[in-house]
Fold this protein.
Amino acid sequence: AGLGPGPWKEMAPLPAATEATASAHSMIYGLHSPWGPASEPPYPLGSEFQTGCDEVLSALEGCHWLFPPCKDRPEAQGLRNAPSASSFASVSQSGVAAIAAARAGAPLAALGAAAAAAAAPAAAAAVGVGAAVFFDLQAQYQFLHVRSDTARDVVAILLAPGLHAQPGDSLALAFGRALEAFARRAYEALTTVQQGRTAMPEEDRQSLVGEAGKALQTLVQGNHLDVSRDLVFCLEAFNVSRGRPVTQQAWLSECLCRILQQAVNVAPPQHRTQWCDTMRNRMREEADLYSNVDVRAWPNILKMASTVAPTDHEMMQADAFIAQVRLQLCLGGDRQTLHNGLSQAAKLVADLKMSTAFGSEEIREMFNDRRKFSRHERQNLLVDALRGAPRPFAQDVLRGMDDIEVDLSERDDEEMKLVTDLLRVLNEDIRCCRHAFFKMKCDWIAGRWAGVVHNEELTPEQVCDHIEDEENHEDFLRVAVNRCLKFNRKFEAARMLARPASHGTRVFETNRNDKQLAYLVSLYQDLEPLPDSFGPVEDSALMLPTSATDVLYVD
């Protein structure tokens, strides 16, 4: 508690005799190999080593790194349960060596569970974290599901957060770093292969996360961990997966969510509510938080927080989130890396329902880069990004692509195919894209190998009835007439041009010099349409002759 000003904030180097003694003990007692939590060094302590231990402890009493000056109240600067100098008198030689190894950067797994348990209170005090309570807890904690030393060392990270803290950290900061270290070390231990076999037994591999959750529950139920205060910085632990592949990121985020959820579930109701309110306030007010969290972990974070109180994307800062999406996922060095990042960004935008926050122009700029990706790749990115988006917003994105990027002069325009495919996959109304709708109507009239005029499926009068009320009537008439003239079907073309709506169009004026066609048009113009004689139908007029006895009546 209470690191003083000036040189007290810097870690003083250990005396030379202390480092040499710790190194000698490391070689003799084999700290490079993990021990069980209740195991002893492979060799008994001799009298000469016992004397050396006393000398080491005497030298450590004046070490500013291990014994920073404390104020009168242990709770100063927000730290709880600060240890006194006398609490370190019970640290064994293994603990002394473990502290020296931890200070040199050795991982926790290399120290062994017993050494880590002995080093926990001293290492916590060395960085200003009042965590002496973790000494007895780690030494007395009973593992139920894991038996190997490797698995127990990984779980012990959560029981000794001081080993991963920095000078001046509070217990909340230390525990946030311990969560990140646990997730990283757990993944490494689970995936390490030695001589063709996993380094950890299969039973421990299946029970590791459950044991870690039980350890957190033990801390909470024993009042050693206050969920409302000591888990304030748990969100920063989700930065452990930044830069990792998708499969690793998914496992790391899910692992942290599971153990945190188990700890929150056993906390008092008021602590759970306070913790959730704190998380929501941080997401709403702290813009710097988003730069310290892997942006891909936010769906898991919101899902975890929603189990306590309703939490959704509206609690997030849209500008900070968008900036981190661009920074973390949209700046790949090569094409494949950039495509993988954009694929994750598209799915993330859809999962968090943040597409409207980006804006239609930003969505098109991010996921529709024609210079780097093919049409099919861009289609997959846009489909993922617009999945579940509001219909007006999705139509706005497609309308922008149709107005700016489509070229009607090319028969096989790639952008036209992209827009029509997106309209079909997203089940949107094609009339929102005027160029795509015009191309569809032209293909319906007379496509390259199909169409109602090409296949003679409708009469000329029926075709004209469909196109005369359209805004592009003249263009549709040109397509139909040109197809008929191409196959020398002048009678049908003349019947279309003879319609009153066709007079004065450029199609009519263009074909005026064709004498044969002009003669047929004059003949069809003199014809008057047959009067419509449709009227009421007499009752039973369409019934087949039958007798009353052959009719089955159903009440």
Observations:
- The mean pLDDT is 76.
- The first strand starts at residue 193 and ends at 194.
- Residues 446 and 453 are 6 Å apart (CA to CA).
- Strands lie at 193-194, 197-198.
